[in-house]
Amino acid sequence: MTVLQIVAQTAPHHFGLCYAWFDELYTVFELFLQQHFLKNHSASFAEYYYGLQRKRVADTENVCSSFFKVQKVKALVALVIFPYLQLKFEKQFEKIKENYELDLNRTISSVKKLLYWIYPCFHIAWNVLILYHNFMFTVGKTKFHSPFYKALGIQLVVCNEPYLMARCVLQCVFVQLTLVCELRP
User: Fold this and answer.
1) What sign for the dihedral angle of Cα 44, 50, 52, 53?
2) Three-class secondary structure of residue 67 per DSSP
3) Which element (helix H / strand E) includes 17?
4) What is the rounded distance in angstroms from the CA atom of residue 39 to the CA atom of residue 66?
5) DSSP H or E segment with residue 52
6) pLDDT classification of 80: cutoffs 50, 70, 90
7) What is the CA radius of gyration of the chain?
8) Given CB 3.0 to 4.6 Å as the disulfide criterion, which of 39, 144, 156, 176 pairs with 149?
9) Distance (Å, rounded) from C-alpha 130 to C-alpha 74?
């Protein structure tokens, strides 16, 4: 049970709507978060945390250059909209599967029946494609770790800008201070 479910059960008049529209609210929040990081750092939130930046494949002289506005919009679709649609399809498939398995006469619409048979094939094919890209990236056979990055013509690079070095130093100092405080009696 999530925190939002508990809060929605205790005060449904205040938080029931948030619980009912949680996927959409989360998607809007993630859209603003990813847009901010793409605009200011040329990286998604997670990529920025690990010191990575997106680079256009055609750009060879400036490793940490920003990428075009059109690519940022496409990146937002890949980071936020596509996972949202995947989640909605997954939930819809689960509902259809539950109804299909309970209905002995199999009297569901043809569209739902099509989704019931097609979605697992699409899901497996998509995951195999992602696995293939991850494997080929790991063994060094491609510059792209994801089909989205390949379609956008973007690769991830470690950016050696000064603020990344400063952030790394601050993280090391914080870890050392934490260790010293833990060792004190």
Assistant:
1) positive
2) coil
3) helix 12-20
4) 9
5) strand 52-56
6) very high
7) 22
8) 144
9) 18
